[in-house]
Design goal:
The structure holds two protein chains of two kinds.
Chain A (H helix, E strand, L loop, with lengths): L1 H27 L6 H9 L13 H10 L11 H12 L18 E4 L9 H5 L5 E2 L7 E2 L19 E4 L27
Antiparallel strand pairs in A: 1-4, 2-3
Chain B lengths: L17 H4 L4 E2 L5 E5 L9 E2 L6 E2 L4 E4 L8 E2 L4 E9 L9 E8 L19 H10 L12 H6 L9 E6 L8 H8 L1 H15 L3 E7 L3 H11 L5 E5 L8 H9 L14 E5 H13 L5 E8 L5 E6 L4 H6 L9 E4 L6 E2 L13 E5 L18 H5 L6 H9 L3 H6 L10 H5 L6 H66 L6 H20 L9 H30 L12 H31 L4
Parallel strand pairs in B: 1-14, 9-10, 9-12, 10-11, 13-17
Antiparallel strand pairs in B: 2-8, 3-5, 4-7, 5-6, 7-8, 13-14, 15-16, 15-17
The chains are: A mainly alpha, B alpha/beta.
InterPro entries (chain A): 4Fe-4S_dom (IPR007202), 4Fe4S_Fe-S-bd (IPR017896), 4Fe4S_Fe_S_CS (IPR017900), Elect_transpt_cplx_RnfB/RsxB (IPR010207), RnfB/RsxB_Proteobac (IPR016463), RnfB_subfamily (IPR050294)
Pfam families (chain A): Fer4_21, FeS
Subcellular location (chain A): Cell inner membrane
Chain lengths: 191, 600
């Protein structure tokens, strides 16, 4: 009888001890943020453009982590981005919706400095503080910081902001995919 | 005879060096106009430090280095700067690049040359800085700034072996061969300087055994210095730095590790020649020897000024009529020049004229049959067929796992491929895509940081504004309360007095919090202080109560019951008062607007 009691007491003690350790560990080593959100956020292109109808990339990442939104809402990420999200979240690849915004070539905002009236509306709209200027002074876009989100286009009262594709330079030049050049043999043959 | 080692793979293409190596080096005539590109190294383009219209002397600094991997640029001859504008550039992209256009005056007037006569007494660091000013870059093809190779942190100190690369393994090229035959003494002087800067124990000069005259000349010159001249078996690409180090020392430099960490450093013969000219004669790098060969009448090596238009150089050797393109570099690693108006760069060791007769067009690529010939030819023991597969499928992660970045783009795999697949083109494509992805990732990280900071900034501004408004309201309320109490004549305390008391209380509270005094403190001074504080608090409480009474009397909402912190209470009361006033004002304004608005 006493052996049984000792065994029960021992097990109880052990359970309490382990429970205390586990309890302490769960408090001490608590993961504050959802690590999945960070992983999703790392895939998103950080244009902060809001085309996913969330106010920025991180809120979209949070919505994806919670499963409350689709993975095909990020046009700047392109289909590659959807593929990466599908792989990370273990869901099927989903193309962009037919009537949803489609991916387009990267571009950088340019303010026509002659037309700019210095209203600061674009400065307030820029999600990455890439526009420099002051009230009633000319504004300009810091091209290297511009994410091409187009959020500055709508607020401009004089429509002086254009999106221009970045110029080709040696620093961003890429070798082309090796292809066999196709030559037009004769224009009559195809008719 | 020292034992030599071998590297895996390699090929034996027809050498075709005799066409250009038979005749001595000629001086190219002085061109009337030079286009000196500002991007003369693998780093940033240099920053011009002359203006249009400036008269410059030969050897004068015209653009200074911008950043670590950048190289200084000097005027190749005396003349007038006529333009600083984008010009055609010797690069596979065909994109124009900023260049300084110099109209030569034909005088070849040198700037005052200042050689480092006492280099033997100078430290490696001093020589390094000197070479950086002289714009010396690796002339073997990589154009890596030489001073950085001298300045790398040495793993084994002093350096065990200094390898001098005279292998020149690529077909058709013979500029290093001619340089070694004709200027062996000057090369050895340069080696002596380099060896002193690196404090290297031994010097090994590796030369492929298809250049017997060069070996003989170098042996004669090196004997006095005690440098070892080693004839290495002819095999492409033995002129790769890691390959030559392996042949001479048996050391295989691992991926991602610098050769210096294994006690070896490698310089090209043309580079050490330039180092010698700079240190002993004070001449910056303004000219180089170029092999002009291929489908030409009289292949030759010429010494040309940097910036000489390439078409003028080619005119010296009279290209065949059927020549259709010109390659800079050799037939295996070179690239087709998009525009021959470009000026010669420091990287330009060879101009190879191609004609359909001499270089029949490559047959169309067939499918990979996985024969493995490329793998046995690869000098870095990669699996070229797998890399090709991954690059073709744009599976770049996998290509990187298969060590794509260890590929030296030597072209041995493309050369042996029975299916005629342009393998190196695929690797270059994959590499530049990976670099582009890296740039995008960095840009995304920057955007994330900036966005997060913006959000933090907005929050902070909002909080600061609220704080400012609250403070203002509190002050206004305090003034109002003071005037009220003065009117009621209950407590004749004026504003400054009240503020002083409040401040004193705050100080006391802070002190209490910082160092809570024990109840039974015996120090007389502290007791006195405590008593004073208590008295002050009592006075303040009394005055406050009076003020509250007054307020209540004047129809304002009474302040909440006093708690331990008098200052906060006052503030709260003030805020409440301000809010009430604001509400009243708003109501009044609304009323006024309603009255103003015409009935619909």
């Amino acid at each position: 009888m006493s052996q049984l009691l000792i065994a029960v007491a021992l097990m109880l003690l052990l359970a309490l001890l382990l429970g205390a350790i586990l309890g302490y560990a769960s408090v001490r080593f608590r993961v504050k943020a959802d690590p999945l959100v960070d992983k999703i956020d790392a895939i998103l292109p950080q244009t902060q453009c809001g085309q996913c109808s969330h106010p920025g990339c991180r809120p979209y990442a949070e919505a994806l982590a919670a499963g409350s939104d689709d993975i095909n809402k990020c046009p700047p990420g392109g289909e590659d981005g959807i593929r990466k999200l599908a792989e990370l979240l273990g869901v099927e690849f989903k193309p962009f919706g037919a009537d949803a915004p489609q991916p387009k070539a990267k571009a950088v905002a340019l303010i026509d400095e002659a037309t700019c009236i210095g209203c600061t509306l674009c400065i307030q709209a820029c999600p990455v503080d890439a526009i420099l200027g002051a009230a009633k002074q000319m504004h300009t876009v810091i091209a290297s910081e511009c994410t091409g989100c187009e959020l500055c286009l709508a607020p401009c009262p004089v429509d002086c902001i254009r999106m221009i594709p970045p110029g080709s330079e040696l620093t961003n030049w890429k070798w082309r995919y090796p292809t066999i050049p196709i030559r037009n043999v004769s224009s009559g043959a195809t008719r | 005879m020292m034992p030599l080692f071998d590297f895996p793979g390699g090929i034996h293409p027809p050498e075709n060096k005799a066409q250009s190596s038979a005749t001595p080096i000629r001086q190219a005539p002085l061109p009337p106009q030079l286009h000196v590109a500002l991007r003369q190294s693998m780093g940033n383009a240099a920053r011009p430090c002359v203006a249009i219209g400036d008269r410059v002397a030969k050897g004068q600094l015209i653009a200074s280095a911008d950043g670590r991997l950048s190289a200084a640029v000097h005027a190749p001859t005396s003349g007038v700067v006529s333009a600083i504008a984008p010009q055609p550039f010797a690069h596979p992209s065909g994109l124009p690049e900023l260049a300084i256009t110099l109209d030569s005056d034909g005088e070849e007037r040198w700037i005052e040359r200042q050689p480092l006569h006492d280099w033997q007494q100078r430290s490696g660091a001093k020589i390094r800085d000197f070479l950086a000013q002289m714009g010396i870059v690796g002339l073997g093809g990589a154009v890596f700034p030489s001073h950085l190779k001298l300045g790398l942190k040495l793993g084994v100190s002093p350096l065990e072996t200094l390898v001098i690369n005279g292998a020149e393994c690529e077909p058709y090229i013979s500029c290093d061969d001619r340089l070694m035959r004709e200027r062996a003494d000057a090369i050895c002087d340069g080696i002596a300087v380099t060896r002193h800067a690196l404090q290297a124990r031994q010097v090994l000069i590796g030369i492929e055994d298809n250049k017997p005259q060069a070996i003989a000349a170098m042996q004669a010159a090196a004997a006095a210095h005690g440098f070892g001249v080693v004839a290495v078996p002819t095999k492409y690409p033995s002129g790769g730095a890691k390959q030559l180090i392996r042949i001479l020392t048996g050391k295989a430099i691992p991926h991602g590790v610098r050769a210096t960490e294994h006690g070896v450093q490698c310089f090209n013969v043309a580079t050490v020649y330039a180092i010698g000219r700079a240190v002993l004669h004070g001449e910056p790098l303004i000219s180089r020897i170029v092999t002009l060969t291929g489908a030409v009448e009289a292949a030759a090596n010429v010494e040309a000024l940097i910036g000489t238009p390439l078409d003028q150089l080619l005119a010296l050797v009279r290209p065949h009529r059927d020549s259709h393109e010109v390659v800079m570099g050799g037939p295996l690693m070179g690239f087709t020049l998009p525009d021959l108006a470009a000026g010669l760069t420091k990287a330009g060791n060879c101009l190879l004229v191609k004609s359909p007769a001499l270089f029949p067009p490559r047959p169309p690529a067939q499918a990979c049959i996985r024969c493995g010939d490329c793998a046995s030819a690869c000098p870095v023991s990669l699996q070229p067929m797998d890399l090709f597969w991954f690059a073709k499928a744009k599976n770049f992660d996998k290509a990187q796992q298969w060590q794509l970045f260890d590929c030296i783009e030597c072209g041995a795999c493309s050369y042996v491929c029975p299916s005629q697949i342009p393998l190196v083109d695929y690797y270059r494509f994959a590499k530049s895509e990976i670099w582009a992805a890296e740039r995008d990732k960095n840009a995304a990280n920057l955007a994330r940081q900036r966005h997060e900071f913006r959000q933090f900034r907005l929050q902070r501004d909002k909080a600061e504004k609220a704080q400012r408004l609250a403070d203002k309201a509190a002050q206004a309320a305090a003034r109002q309360a003071a005037s009220h109490s003065a009117a009621a004549n209950v407590a004749p305390a004026s504003d400054p007095k009240q503020a002083a008391i409040a401040a004193a209380m705050a100080r006391a509270a802070a002190q209490r919090e910082a160092a809570p005094l024990p109840e039974q403190h015996s120090s007389g001074l502290n007791d006195a202080k405590q008593a004073a504080i208590a008295a002050a608090m009592a006075r303040a409480a009394a005055r406050k109560a009076a003020a509250d009474e007054a307020k209540a009397a004047s129809g304002q909402p009474p302040a909440p019951p006093p708690s331990s912190s008098g200052l906060d209470d006052a503030k709260q009361a003030a805020i409440a008062a301000a809010m009430a006033r604001a509400a009243a004002r708003k109501a009044a304004a609304d009323q006024a607007r309603a009255n103003q608005q015409p009935d619909p």
